[in-house]
Amino acid sequence: GESVGLHLPTLSVQEGDNSIINCAYSNSASDYFIWYKQESGKGPQFIIDIRSNMDKRQGQRVTVLLNKTVKHLSLQIAATQPGDSAVYFCAENSGYSTLTFGKGTMLLVSP
Amino acid sequence: GAVVSQHPSRVICKSGTSVKIECRSLDFQATTMFWYRQFPKKSLMLMATSNEGSKATYEQGVEKDKFLINHASLTLSTLTVTSAHPEDSSFYICSADSTSGSGETQYFGPGTRLLVL
Lengths: 111, 117
Fold this sequence. Notes:
- The structure holds two protein chains of two kinds.
- By secondary structure, chain A is mainly beta.
- In chain A, the strands form two sheets. In chain A, strands 1, 2, 4, 5, 9, 10 and 11 form a seven-stranded mixed β-sheet that branches. In chain A, strands 3-8-7-6 form a four-stranded antiparallel β-sheet, with no helix packed on it.
- The two termini of chain A are 15 Å apart.
- The relative contact order of chain A is 0.33.
- In chain A, 0% of the residues lie in helices and 53% in strands.
- Chain A has strands at 2-3, 10-14, 19-24, 32-38, 45-51, 56-58, 62-67, 72-77, 86-93, 99-101, 105-110.
- By secondary structure, chain B is mainly β.
- Helices cover 0% and strands 52% of the residues of chain B.
- Chain B is built from no helices and eleven strands.
- In chain B, 36% of the residues are buried.
- The interface between A and B is medium-sized, with 23 and 26 residues.
C-alpha cells in the first residue's frame, strides 16, 4: 500500500506486481517531464521522459502517463523486481533551463 | 556515454573549514552544469546553474559567497563550501547538460556526501 506523511511517501509492492507512482506537478507551462530513479547514496538515474504534446510514452517495462488537465504524471513499472527498489522523482522543465523536482516516492519491492 | 563524475564521494571536515567538490563530464562537453543539495529523505533542491566562462546563477536563498562555483572549462565545475558549518552537512549532486543549455538533458553525478563536525 501507499503511505504519506512526515516521511517520504512509500509504495510497497510484491515482486512481479505492477507499480504505479504518481506525481503532481505545479507549473502549467512545463512542457517536458522526466522520471528519475535514485538508489541510496547515488545520483538520480534517468528512466523515461515525455513532452507535453504526448499523453503516453512507453519504454522497457516502464510507461509514463501525462494528464495536463489536472497536472498529473504517473510512472508505471511492469513486473516490478527487487532491483526496482529506490526513490523515484518526477521532474519538470518549464523552459527556464532548469528542472524542478517533485518530492519523491520510495518504492519497496519485497520478494 | 554521458558520464558525470564527482570528487570526493564523501568528505568529513571540521566546522569553519572550506571544502571543494569537483564535477566533471567525462565524455562530453557541458556548457551548463547544475548543483543540487539533497537532505535525507528529501528531494533535490537546485542551488545554482553554472555556465562555462561566466558567473553562476544562484537560486533564491542560496548564499553565493558561501557556495562558490567555478566553471573553468567545458568539462569541470567546482563547488566550494566556505566556512562550513554542521547545517551544511548534506548530499551535494551535480549534473551536466549535454545539449545547448536547455536544461532538459541533465546527466547526474554520483553525489558527494559532506559531513561537517
